[in-house]
């Protein structure tokens, strides 16, 4: 039978080449970085035989001139083939001698200068912690590494909880000499200063008592290579999984354990390969008072052999064990192929029943089934005992928290508990035994049957939810072709505006297009954030609803109100490439800081304290939420947020003119006609088309070959932030047209990206939108306030013409302003006050009970600040012609 590469590598890491050489009669002495002795393969008078323990290589510099690794040495010294050499070395390995604690694992790097009892020093622990934190930050920014973990069944939550990392090679450039020395001792750096685990995902292994990282396991994302830190294998994976439980599932590798944890199995840990059930792991299980271990090792011959060895070791410390076989090569493959927690528990339960049928005294599953009462309560009855369950949900599979009532005749006991917590079950059984006069062991047995029934119920609930999601997101071949044809339309932007109209929205082209592009920008690394500012009844909610209707439901998060900490505790990737929509500014007031930070940095993080349920002590936990995410909020108030917050958003306003009102009213009437009813029926198909089109848009990078020639106003400090919006607007247009462009690939070292290039037509459209939309940011008056001022100026013109005086001399009361502008009293009061503060109006106080009046302060024709200074496409062509650059550009502008 062929020997697996992983087994060969694992054995090389556990064998000391120097010990093997000495066992063949060669005396070795240290000289410099290597060990030297007389070559056993030829007559030698001076030491010419060198052994490099760090690299695991030997070399004769004398007559024979041969060299190699530990296998080649045994083959030559003993005159055997490779298979026999492997068998000899395996027989003599530390694990086979029952001394797993002494197994040496040396990738490339020095042997650590540990304490006398084998523990790492304080400095080494400190630098290892820093390396773990740095690698974790590197991982959350590396999409390919995250995709690799997802392909192995590892969830985003597991990445955060266990602080998984990725070695991208950048750590070495951030170390001081002391840090380099310590990391070289640990084996994270080789003698040349390169990172030994480069290109690998790393998994911290912790001390079961302190939860501090004491080891690292690394898995290369492309090569069949896995490594540990230098020295003996230290640490335990997920020691918390053995707390408060009698049974633990033990897998063969860290990735297998992570995959099971990711689907909700929390009582899971692992060995480090078939020879890696260390004394530290056994001690952790023993200290946690685990009674049973389910061995879920790989489905191969070595896994079966390891299961027998592991069972023997576990039995020696008083822990029962049994083997469970999965319908896959290993646990990671089982999860990656779609295996769920319910499937896993069913497999374990079925094989447990099979064992019981063969004679084991294992409790069997009761045939009773849950019944659902008219009020939604689930009930399960045993003889004179009835259990009633409330609060069961299909989410949060790591817990089974319910409200449980036990009725026994006229007696009852009621409590809220997590049935997955053995302490909760014990407390419930003890109290129920006293209150309901039943045997405690009977209640415990009832609870186990109840758990299996509730798990089956939750499985059905999740299947129902999953089918709804799948049905909503499924695309037929015809729908894909239709969406692709839409995205390839040369008049794509025009069709988008027309589709908004067909779905009932009457709006300006620039506002509608910017809103749509803002929604699409969620697939960029620097998306836009939208703030829709307009008077009540102007149609801001209609615009927000229209945007939401065009975004696929699975990529939309819509809330009415956010509390101050709500965003910080979401799943780390639950907002990534989605659109977060908040109905009104009042619903976002408590979360202004988190929204502002998320819009600016596309990332949130919080360190919070909680009580550890196992120790009762306070512990600090770190939570992170990652973008990119587009935020959309509506408001009627120009002063809804502070200026610092408003500057993060692109402000969209509605056309509040009488002509627009007439158009909207006409559209409302049209919807009740036969053509309007037909259009409403067609609108669902239009929305579906846009859902599918946006699903097909890939989150590509965007490269702007003209960026060095672009210009932006620079007179005000706010332009530093506004230009980013302008560039993101250009990128959104290019991304939307990706199916009309060549998708290119660029590579630098190990990094590879796919991207589309900006074309002149994109800049032309962005300039058109920016001058109208972003130009409003140049105006010191918010859109509603500007609208009020324009209405007052027009009223002053008309009255001045009647009285034959200058408009600046006209005085208007609030009542006259209301009558002239048709704005509400609240709006007139608020906006006139703002205009007075900004010195656009004088407020003249009258005595003797007469009303206050307002008067223009200056020139009637005062200029509105607009966006000037953008490089036009014609100017850009001239610049390109002068520079002599030959760039492929399209003459026809999109939309």
Assembly state: single chain
CATH architecture of the largest domain: 3-Layer(aba) Sandwich
CATH H-level superfamily of the largest domain: P-loop containing nucleotide triphosphate hydrolases
Structural class: alpha/beta
- What's the mean pLDDT score? 82
CATH class of the largest domain: Alpha Beta
Main β sheet profile: 5 strands, antiparallel
The stretches of 5 or more residues where confidence is low (pLDDT under 50) are 94-117, 359-366, 466-472, 885-895
Domains counted in the coordinates: how many? 6
How are the strands of the biggest sheet laid out side by side? 1-2-3-4-5
DSSP helical segment count: 29
What attributes characterize this protein structure?
895 residues, alpha/beta, DNA Primase, Chain A, DNA primase DNAg catalytic core, N-terminal domain, Dna Topoisomerase Vi A Subunit, Chain: A, domain 2, 5-stranded antiparallel beta sheet, globular, disordered C terminus
Structural summary, described in words:
- With 895 residues, this protein is of the alpha/beta class.
- The protein folds into six domains: 89 residues, DNA Primase, Chain A (Alpha-Beta Complex), CATH 3.90.580.10; 138 residues, DNA primase DNAg catalytic core, N-terminal domain (Alpha-Beta Complex); 129 residues, Dna Topoisomerase Vi A Subunit, Chain: A, domain 2; 103 residues, no CATH class; 219 residues, P-loop containing nucleotide triphosphate hydrolases (Rossmann fold), CATH 3.40.50.300; 77 residues, Arc Repressor Mutant, subunit A (Orthogonal Bundle).
- Helices cover 41% and strands 17% of the residues.
- It has a five-stranded antiparallel β-sheet with strand order 1-2-3-4-5, with helices on one face. It has a five-stranded antiparallel β-sheet with strand order 14-15-16-17-18, with helices on one face.
- It starts with a helix and ends in a 12-residue tail after the last helix.
């Amino acid at each position: 039978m062929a020997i697996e590469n992983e087994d060969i590598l694992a054995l090389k890491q556990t064998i000391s080449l120097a010990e093997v050489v000495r066992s063949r009669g060669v005396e070795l002495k240290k000289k410099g970085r290597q060990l030297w002795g007389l070559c056993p393969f030829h007559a030698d008078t001076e030491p010419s035989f060198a052994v490099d323990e760090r690299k695991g290589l030997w070399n004769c510099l004398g007559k024979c001139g041969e060299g190699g690794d530990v296998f080649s040495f045994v083959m030559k010294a003993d005159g055997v083939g490779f298979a026999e050499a492997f068998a000899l070395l395996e027989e003599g390995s530390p694990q086979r001698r029952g001394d797993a604690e002494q197994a040496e694992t040396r990738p490339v790097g020095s042997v650590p200068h540990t304490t006398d009892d084998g523990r790492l020093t304080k400095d080494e622990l400190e630098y290892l912690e820093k390396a773990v934190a740095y690698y974790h930050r590197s991982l959350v920014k590396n999409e390919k590494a995250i995709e690799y973990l997802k392909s192995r069944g590892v969830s985003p939550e597991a990445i955060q909880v266990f602080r998984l990392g990725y070695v991208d090679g950048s750590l070495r450039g951030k170390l001081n000499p002391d840090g380099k020395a310590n990391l070289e001792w640990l084996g994270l750096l080789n003698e040349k200063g390169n990172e030994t685990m480069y290109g690998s995902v790393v998994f911290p292994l912790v001390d079961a008592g302190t939860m501090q990282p004491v080891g690292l396991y690394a898995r290369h994302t492309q090569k069949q290579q896995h490594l540990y830190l230098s020295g003996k294998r230290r640490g335990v994976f997920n020691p918390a999984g053995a707390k408060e439980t009698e049974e633990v599932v033990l897998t063969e590798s860290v990735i297998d354990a992570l995959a099971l944890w990711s689907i909700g199995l929390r009582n899971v840990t692992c060995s480090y390969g078939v020879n890696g059930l260390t004394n530290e792991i056994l001690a952790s299980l023993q200290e946690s008072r685990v009674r049973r271990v389910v061995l879920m090792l790989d489905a191969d011959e070595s896994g079966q052999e390891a299961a027998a060895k592991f069972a023997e070791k576990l039995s020696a410390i008083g822990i029962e064990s049994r083997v469970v076989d999965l319908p896959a090569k290993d646990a990671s493959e089982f999860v990656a192929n779609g295996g769920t927690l319910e499937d896993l528990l069913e497999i374990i339960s079925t094989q447990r029943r099979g064992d019981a049928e063969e004679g084991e005294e294992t409790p069997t599953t009761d045939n009773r089934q849950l019944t659902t009462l008219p009020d939604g309560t689930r009930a399960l009855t045993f003889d004179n005992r009835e259990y009633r369950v409330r609060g069961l949900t299909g989410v949060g599979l790591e817990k089974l928290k319910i409200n449980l009532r036990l009725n026994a005749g006229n007696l009852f006991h009621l409590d809220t508990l997590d049935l997955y917590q053995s302490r909760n079950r014990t407390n419930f059984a003890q109290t129920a035994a006293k209150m309901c006069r039943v045997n405690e062991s009977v209640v415990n047995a009832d609870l186990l049957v109840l758990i299996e029934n509730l798990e089956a119920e939750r499985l059905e609930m999740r299947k129902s939810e999953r089918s709804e999601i799948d049905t909503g997101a499924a695309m037929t071949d015809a729908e894909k072709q239709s969406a692709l044809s839409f995205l390839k339309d040369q008049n794509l932007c025009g069709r988008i505006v027309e589709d908004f109209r067909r779905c009932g929205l009457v709006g300006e082209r620039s506002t509608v297009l910017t809103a749509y592009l803002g929604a699409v920008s969620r697939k960029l690394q620097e998306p836009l954030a939208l703030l829709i500012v307009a008077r009540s009844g102007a149609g801001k909610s209609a615009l927000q609803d229209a945007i939401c209707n065009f975004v696929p439901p699975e990529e939309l998060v819509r809330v009415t109100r956010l509390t101050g900490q709500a965003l910080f505790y979401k799943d780390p990737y639950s907002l990534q490439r989605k659109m977060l929509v908040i109905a009104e500014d009042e619903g976002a007031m408590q979360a202004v800081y988190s929204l502002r930070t998320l819009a600016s940095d596309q990332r949130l993080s919080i360190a919070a304290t909680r009580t550890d349920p196992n120790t009762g002590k306070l512990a600090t936990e770190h939570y992170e939420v990652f973008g990119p995410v587009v935020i959309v909020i509506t408001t009627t108030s120009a002063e809804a947020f502070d200026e610092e917050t408003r500057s993060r958003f692109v402000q969209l306003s509605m056309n509040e003119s009488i002509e627009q009102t007439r158009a909207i009213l006409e559209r409302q009437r049209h919807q009740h006609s036969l053509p309007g009813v037909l259009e409403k029926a067609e609108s669902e198909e239009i929305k579906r088309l846009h859902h599918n089109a946006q699903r097909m848009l890939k989150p590509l990078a965007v490269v702007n070959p003209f960026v060095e020639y672009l210009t932006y106003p620079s007179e005000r400090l706010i332009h530093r932030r506004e230009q980013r919006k302008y560039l993101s607007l250009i990128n959104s247009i290019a991304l939307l047209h990706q199916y009309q462009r060549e998708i290119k690939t660029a590579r630098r070292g190990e990094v590879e990206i796919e991207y589309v290039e900006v074309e002149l037509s994109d800049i032309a459209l962005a300039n058109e939108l920016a001058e109208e939309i972003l130009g409003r940011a140049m105006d010191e008056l918010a859109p509603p306030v500007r609208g009020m001022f324009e209405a007052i100026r027009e009223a002053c013109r008309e009255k001045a013409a009647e009285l034959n005086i200058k408009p600046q001399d006209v005085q208007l009361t609030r009542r006259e302003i209301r009558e002239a502008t048709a704005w509400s009293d609240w709006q007139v009061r608020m906006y006139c006050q703002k205009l007075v503060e900004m010195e656009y109006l004088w407020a003249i106080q009258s005595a003797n009970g007469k009303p206050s009046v307002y008067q223009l302060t200056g020139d009637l024709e005062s200029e509105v600040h607009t966006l000037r200074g953008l490089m036009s496409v014609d100017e850009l062509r001239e610049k390109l012609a002068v520079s002599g650059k030959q760039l492929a550009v399209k003459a026809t502008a999109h939309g």
